Every structure is written in structure tokens, then in C-alpha cells.
């Protein structure tokens, strides 16, 4: 096993946790490729397939519960926040809300396969007042389906692990640069957006003085 595969085998679970958390933070992290590599390593006996799925599902659930709670507490404002970098924020929110209203919490079973909807499904469940138990069950099932799909691909095509590992590292190098630039832009944009959001609820200085009097 070459150094690349040894690195993936040794740090596989931590890489998976980081990749899933990054994906759920709306960063361009190839979590699916990490799962493919983990599935291939499981076939070679270097990782546990069940352990890979448990780690992936639990990480998804942890991240999505945070978005769910944000949806419950902030309502539609968190949806506009997530759609902040979309060209048409209103249309982005409307499409996701419409999809959730048609399919309900069941949409969590497939939302992770749909770009755009995957970022909004969890906060939408919160804004719709879906119970935490129901959300957790459907979100975990959706995470399991998504994780098992990519892990199974790696498990079946484990003879291509060298290529997958090389691609993961090449993609990772590109992503590292893209994340450094993109995250800076993303953070600055979101910070400016939050600043505007906070200013909407700030008390006018004159009113504050009047209240003190």
C-alpha cells in the first residue's frame, strides 16, 4: 500500500468527519469522494464499512441538527441567509419551500442528492416545526442512503482505489486553494449580510435616549 493509501487508511474516519462537516457548512468539500475511498478501504479490510457509515451518519445528524435548530429559532431569515450567495435569493427560498411543502419531511430521504436543496432541507424542517424526533429519523435515513451509495461504489470498485486516492488528493489540493479563496469571500459576504440583518433590529439611538429619560 503506497503512502497515499496509508494516509487515507490511518486518518480515514477523521477525514470523513471533516469532509461531511465542511459539506454541510456549504463549503466545496468532496465528501462523496472520501466516502468512495473509505468504502474501497473497507473492502481491503483497512477500515470498517459499518464504522464508516456510522461516522458519516452521526456527523451528518450533528451538523443538520444545528441547521434545524437555526430554522426553528430564526424562521425564514435563516433560509435567506443560506441562499445569500444565490443570484435570486427569493426564488431560491421559494423553490425549496415549495418542494418541502409538497413532500414534507420525506424530502430528507433524498435531499442530500439534490444540489441546493441539501443545504436548505434541515432549516426548512425547523421552520415548519417538524418534531425533533421525526426530523432526526428521516435525516438519519437520508444520510445513511447517501453515505451507503458512495461507500458501496468504493467497496465494489476497490480495485480502482489507487486512482480514487490520487483523485481525492488532487481534488483536495485544488479544494484547499478554492476553500481558502472561497471561504474568505463567503465569510466576508455572510458577515456583511449578518451586519445588515442585525441593523434591522437595532434600536434607533434617539429612541434609546428617549427610553432612558
What does this structure look like?
- The protein has helices at 3-24, 31-43, 49-74, 76-82, 89-103, 117-127, 132-156, 161-199, 205-212.
- It is mainly alpha-helical and 213 residues long.
- The protein has one domain (3-212).
- Helix 1 crosses helix 2, helix 3 (49-74) packs across helix 6 (117-127) and helix 5 packs across helix 6.
- The N and C termini lie far apart (75 Å).
Layout of strands and helices, then pairs:
Elements: H1 3-24, H2 31-43, H3 49-74, H4 76-82, H5 89-103, H6 117-127, H7 132-156, H8 161-199, H9 205-212
Helix pairs in contact: 1-2, 1-3, 2-7, 2-8, 3-6, 3-7, 4-6, 5-6
Query: What is the 3D form?
Result: elongated
Overall mean pLDDT = 77
Q: What is the count of distinct domains? A: 1
Percent in strands? under 5%
Major pleated sheet:
none
Give the termini distance in whole angstroms.
75 Å
| Low-pLDDT segments, ≥5 res | 172-183, 203-213
Structural class: mainly alpha
Helical stretch tally: 9
Residues in helices, as a percent range: over 70%
Total number of beta strands: 0
Give the SSE order as H and E letters: HHHHHHHHH
Our Rg estimate from Cα atoms comes to 20 Å
Amino acid at each position: 500500500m503506497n503512502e497515499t493509501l496509508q494516509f487515507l487508511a490511518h486518518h480515514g474516519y477523521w477525514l470523513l468527519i471533516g469532509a461531511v462537516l465542511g459539506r454541510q457548512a456549504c463549503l466545496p468539500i468532496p465528501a462523496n469522494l472520501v466516502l468512495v475511498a473509505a468504502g474501497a478501504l473497507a473492502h481491503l479490510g483497512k477500515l470498517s464499512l459499518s464504522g464508516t457509515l456510522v461516522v458519516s451518519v452521526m456527523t451528518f445528524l450533528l451538523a443538520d441538527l444545528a441547521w434545524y435548530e437555526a430554522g426553528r429559532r430564526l424562521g425564514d431569515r435563516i433560509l435567506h441567509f443560506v441562499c445569500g450567495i444565490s443570484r435570486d435569493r427569493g426564488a431560491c427560498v421559494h423553490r425549496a419551500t415549495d418542494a418541502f411543502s409538497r413532500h414534507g419531511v420525506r424530502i430528507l430521504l433524498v435531499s442530500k442528492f439534490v444540489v441546493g436543496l441539501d443545504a436548505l432541507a434541515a432549516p426548512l424542517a425547523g421552520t415548519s416545526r417538524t418534531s425533533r424526533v421525526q426530523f432526526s429519523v428521516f435525516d438519519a435515513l437520508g444520510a445513511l442512503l447517501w453515505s451507503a451509495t458512495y461507500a458501496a461504489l468504493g467497496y465494489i470498485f476497490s480495485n480502482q482505489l489507487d486512482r480514487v486516492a490520487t483523485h481525492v488528493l488532487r481534488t483536495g489540493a485544488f479544494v484547499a486553494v478554492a476553500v481558502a479563496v472561497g471561504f474568505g469571500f463567503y465569510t466576508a459576504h455572510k458577515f456583511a449580510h449578518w451586519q445588515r440583518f442585525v441593523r434591522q433590529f437595532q434600536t434607533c439611538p434617539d429612541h434609546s435616549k428617549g427610553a432612558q429619560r
